[in-house]
Amino acid sequence: MSKTPEHDPRLSVEIAGIRFNNPVIGASGTFGYGLEFAELIDLNRIGGFVTKGLSAKPLPGNPPARIVETHGGMLNAIGLQNIGARAFIEEKLPQLRGYDTRIIANVFGYSDDDYIEAITILNDGDGISAYELNISCPNVKEGGIVIGNSPDAAARLTERAKRASVRPLIVKLSPNVTDVTVLARAIAQAGADSLSLINTIVGMSVDVIKRRPRLNYGTGGLSGPAIRPIAVRMVYEVAGAVDLPIIGIGGIACASDALEFIIAGATAIQIGTANYYDPQVTIKTIEGLSRHCASQRIAKINDLTHSISRN
Amino acid sequence: MIETVAIVESNRELSPGYRILILDFHVDVLVRPGQFAMLKAHSSLEPLLRRALAVYKVYGPRRLGFLYQVLGRGTETLAQLAPGGEVEILLPLGNSWPIDASADKRALVVAGGIGSASVLMLCEDLRAARSNAHLFLGAASEGAIIGCGVNDFRALEIPMSITTDDGSLGERGFVTAPLERYLRDGVGSASSIYACGPWVMMKRVAEIAARFEVRCIVSLEAPMGCGFGVCVGCVVGVKSAGQSGYDSYRRVCTDGPIFDADTISWEVNAMH
């Protein structure tokens, strides 16, 4: 992949001082450590990707069954199985530095101290552009969503993480709250550079013969096209509440889906579950956004950001 | 690993609920025995995820067969594919059967139900290597045995023991019964056992192999999100080497699907 592709200048975007060649980013948990996609797509063409959630120490994850398909989506309860922040820096990052794409490290911990420890380790990682603070994973009993559901706890961790971090801090919001704007405001005031939303929605699927949940963990996080309208609504709400760049996530599978988020208030978007069943979806989405800019005579994709008008 | 759209040449029912899908590719595809593909009907919205199917037979460099049982939404959609239809497919995926032609003087192959789809190419290779192979094929009924490709195995002229749950063909009972008898009374000792089938069958085969001190290799199955290692959804429990236990799970898709039976934590059922 030595040849650098030509990027459509209309698609370039900036978040917290970081320039992305385009607004299409692979979402955490669906893009591995990036390298898994090197055989399937030209990583130089995507705006960036977010690593699988990294913790200070490696984590085993939950016992199977970890995934189950539902209509228009899937439930997962992986439990953040990951190689750990140190192994990421030593084993994966050196192989990624040759690519012209933005690497965002997703950071996870069971406690505030765990998060800070992971960030401190990752601060040594040359080639990481930003951190995405994962305070919204629904599949672990401590950390994650426990912090992400409390504006006070989320703000406290954001403040500490921002102080510990040498890089811009994106905070990934949970949709499993009554009013996402309360959380967004608290995290913005605590110093976050950007917000990404939404993480998965807590759900359950039941095996009617065995009369027990299909997932070993019991509940799981719902993702895929089924959650997209909820995600678009939440991006719209948060865009009206805070003055931070927003990265929209939730069931995006094509350029038109991505545009919904951008128009509702997002500066960039992440593609998640669609990577599983359409590994080239990021590239197809970038091409679709270029076509849209051409046909609609749009000079810069971010001219569309938060351009929504109410009927 | 190739991601492409293949064309359906045929999609024939072998017996009720069992079909063979033959796909034509516009590029050469090199597949080793035991590898699999992720596939779904082109542009279909439901179900969302592709389905993992073992490559059953290589008819040519651009022509592959997939034997499958119609069990749920994914395979029901595949069953409706007609000749000329298009399939989105990612392959070849996973590792392959570790055949050691010099060591496998007497290889036993155990297939339960549609697990047979993963072992036809293995049997072809064992036969080509002049191994003294014996196949144990078990399924629910005579119809299921036909659906599991018994005629393709017969064409290889490998000695075969057949069992059915209802006794409609071969011996009534589970496939592990003749396997155990063979090892107890059989001529000479077996060098390897290769098994693919339901979890309980493979667990039992692994126990028998351990008792007779025979190398046992299994091909596992698990619900898969992606098939190429990123979703970490298809894990199987393994005997952890480290104190922390963080290496307790392996991905069936990229660390497998073929594992040494000794490494598997059989009490953690990955094939729900």
Question: What does the model show?
Answer:
The complex is a heterodimer of chains A (311) and B (272). Chain A has 311 residues and is an alpha/beta fold. Chain A has one domain (9-61, 78-202, 221-303): Aldolase class I (TIM Barrel, Alpha-Beta Barrel), CATH 3.20.20.70. Chain A contains nine helices and 16 strands. Chain A has helices at residues 85-96, 112-122, 145-148, 151-164, 180-189, 228-241, 255-264, 274-277, 281-295, and strands at 13-15, 18-20, 24-26, 48-50, 67-70, 73-76, 102-107, 128-134, 169-172, 194-197, 201-203, 206-207, 212-213, 220-223, 246-249, 268-271. Chain A has an eight-stranded parallel β-barrel, surrounded by seven helices. In chain A, strands 5-6-14-11 form a four-stranded antiparallel sheet, with no helix packed on it. In chain A, strand 7 (102-107), helix 2 (112-122) and strand 8 (128-134) form a beta-alpha-beta unit. In chain A, helix 4 (151-164) runs parallel beside helix 5, helix 6 packs parallel to helix 7 (255-264) and helix 7 crosses helix 9 (281-295). Chain B has a domain at 2-93: Elongation Factor Tu (Ef-tu), domain 3. Chain B has 272 residues and is α/β, with parallel strands linked by helices. Chain B has helices at residues 73-79, 120-128, 142-147, 150-155, 176-185, 199-211; strands at residues 2-15, 18-24, 36-41, 51-54, 57-60, 63-69, 86-93, 107-112, 134-139, 160-164, 171-172, 192-196, 215-219, 235-237, 249-251, 258-260. The two termini of chain B are 27 Å apart. Chain B has a seven-stranded antiparallel sheet with strand order 4-3-7-1-2-6-5. In chain B, strands 11-10-9-8-12-13-16 form a seven-stranded mixed sheet. In chain B, strand 1 (2-15) and strand 2 form a beta hairpin.
